Amino acid sequence: MSKRPPNELESRLHKAILSTPNKEMTAKDTETIISEPNARERALNFLLGVGLIKTLVDSNRRVSFRAVTKGELVATKDLNGEENLVFSHIKAAGSEGIWTKHLKTKTNLHQTIIDRSLKTLTQKRLVKRVPSVQHPTRKIYMLEGLEPSISLTGGPWYTDNELDTEFIQHLTEVCYKFVRDTTFPKRKEGGGEGVLYAISNPPRYPTAQDIRSSLKKAKLTETELSVEHVEMLLNVLILDGKIEKLPAFGTSMWDSIANDEPESDSDIEEKQRKKRKSKSVDDKSHSKKRKKRNESESEESSSSEDESRIKRRRKRRKDDDETESEPESATLKRKKKKKKVEIESDSSDAMTDGEPKKKKRKKLGVLSPSDASSSEEDEVPRRKRKYLGRSPSPFLSRFGDETDGSVYRAIKEEHLSLGWSEAPCTLCPSFDFCKGGGPVNPKDCVYYGEWLAAASLNAIEDQE
Amino acid sequence: MADVNLARLCTEIVHVHFGSLAAQVVSVLLTRGRLSLPQILRYTQLKPRIARASILALVQHNLLWHAQSDEGTEVFEFNVDECLMRLRFGKFVHMAQQLFGKAGAELVQSILDHGKLRSPDILRLLGVHDSKSITVHRGVMHKLVSENYLKPSTVLSHVSPADKQIKYEGEEKAKISGFPTAKELKQAKQVAEARMRREEEEAGKAGLKPKATNHAVHRARKRKLEETDEIVDNTIYFRVNFDKFNIHIRNTLIVRAARNRYNEEAASVLRAILHLTESWQRNVAEVRSEPVSVPNLVVKLANEDNLARGLVLAVKKPSNTTCIKEYLGMLSCGDNPTAVGKAASFISLNSSKVQVEFDVIGRRLRRHVLESVTRERHGNEGVRILRLLMDTGKMDDKQISKVVMMAGKDVRALLTALATDSLISTQEVPKSADRNPTRTFYLWYVDQHKAFSTILGQVYKSLYNISVRQRAEREIPEVKAVLEKKERSDVRQDEGLLTRLEREIAQEWEGKLGKLVALEMRVEETLFILKDLGVLGIDDD
What we know:
CATH topology of the domain at 244-356 in chain B: Arc Repressor Mutant, subunit A
Oligomer: heterodimer
Number of domains of chain A: 5
Radius of gyration of chain B: 28 Å
Largest sheet of chain A: 3 strands, antiparallel
Structural class of chain B: mainly alpha
Number of helices of chain B: 23
């Protein structure tokens, strides 16, 4: 193998291959650089000989060449075969790094040889050892110049390879505060103790994206948080029972449900009776009932009372929309569409048990395209689509593609005072040993003594 | 068969209510199962006369069931559920007072005191003689019986329902020819259950009889007079129908939960729905209430003028109807159509009818108990893990630590702590056929049955401890002396006969008694959620 430097033709070819985006060139493309076949063959042979290019064969058996920079060549030049093997495997692992045990199985080298090679490679500053969050005991190596991937560092929640619980706690609290402030009415809006937003007049509940941007605005941390990270925090809050996740179309759906029940008192009574009957009787009466109901409903919908209510509601929604500063045309379209849907669904029988769900779905299908067209939240669904697949509810996953995701809402915990927890027994360390006549017994239990001597019981909040 | 904690608690309750001799009998019955009289005599070593008297008292108070042993001798079995109800007697009397006034409370109390009574006996015991109060008491009595707060005591109520179930099922099975299939067996069981229910209902009707004089006259007016047509049968013994009173306890709990979750006004709407359907509610095992129409509800709540106070609406002066609809939407989680929303709802809204979902609420209340116990012992982190496992099922500890965002070592410690309290359990999944522990996945999950039965056992034990402690406090020599002195007829008339020290001791004792009784009541409430509401949702996992 000649050790002469590459001549002008050869270095031109080398540079040309290097300048391509992936540092690769097919054999055919090299013809454009050196058109004369013999010279080309010589140049390629020389470059292959020195190791400045390597041959690659793809699945179609086409040969292409990959260029190796001079720096790389110099670095790997004085490695022996084993070191080179080890180095190439580490290189192939990329930013994920490779565990020494995997290295051993892949290279089929003896442990001591691998250790030696790794030592020399580290000394030459070609590779480095990186710690892993998931497997703190594993020896993982990767190329010196690379940044460890998220799976090794653990993402923003880890500092110095430990879960930063304080940081997480802090951020969760901020998230909760944000959600809570939007969920419960402020004092100036007429909110007082225990006042809630009405279901037809909901505030704009925040999505994960909203929370993310507000966290960003608050400049709490240097760490860049993605929507996934914010969702992790929100999931913790859900598990704590502090907030709940609800589909964004929920409130609009409630509106439509609430709208289509203009029925008079006696009518309902009658239906109730009918329903009871129909439970025991067969399907025939069911279909008859449906027919009858349709008739009665068409009468009702023409009644003036009903119309005025719809008008009122429409007006109210308009007010809402204005405050939300949505484009007027979009809302108008939405309204129209919703109205249409209502009429459609009215004709379907709402009496059977499984019906409401079906109705909801139906409405949803028609509604959501118009919903999605509302200006600002347009891009959310695309980003969120992949998480929706993970969501536990089959309902969501089925319609996930059409909705604009989920919003979050704070809830007051309906946590009943647990009477039992007031007894000293609940936390008694020797509860299991406690036995009448035993060394620990209820008759002269010291905890009861303390408890009886201590302050009085909390007042019961209500007696009905 | 009762476990050791339950057996101790029942014995303690009987000891407090009936004294030590009856407690001995009960203790033997609970530890050894069904016994005949000679066997009871042998095990308790009581004199026949005393044992017989105790048994009679217990039978009178519906605490013993009669049964026939295989040899044909009569044996007794202790009725545990009835015994546990005795913890609620105070509550029942209080409720009767609120529902039916003072006369109702007196009637219920005297029946509770005597187990079962005929209506003339009650009046005699209460010392009601003047005609005016007799009419009042009779009226209340009629109301109590017609609204099922009292039920007639029949032969049926002295036989263990389990026995009957077995017997009827056996009869049904005997009818099956050939080798019975699973379906046939199931059918036989259902038929037996239906037959029992029918018998029970028939027995329940026996309390009222038609008035003799009114029988033939005025057919047309009969409808109007329907209620007065029937009078309370004087020959029938009545006992308190605990199911009906339990409904009120449950409804109070539900309203309280709604108040905590939403606000006072939402709770009052829910209370109105419960109130409207109250007369149809028979026991706490019902899945949902009868439907109520929204207009009915609006009429019922017509006098509530501050419903709008708890809402922020877009319109300035909303009508009551609008507000009620809003509250109904909230209570039914109308804006959250997911499974999670369903599980968090109080009511279901079907076109314009409302039903209270007792099943959903009951499950949630039980879950809250589990969560509170966890919170009490393992803090918020423990609850977080528990809720995760309850929502998702089985999970590996690494996965758990990832989702709850806690360090792996903390999670592992917490998981084992939770498992020692039986709140969570492990499922082993071996990777290889040899079941080597190092090659096994350990998945954590919440075994609700196990968790709840453990908690229930602990609640029984706590109740036992409280009761024993109460008795022990009473039997401190100084307190005992003072209490005995207080009971003397001359001291009862003149408190001044007690010295200052004695009065202080008496006061201190009363304070302690008040505290212990209050504690007992609250623990008993937990028992109610776990045991009585436990009939709901027990069969689904």
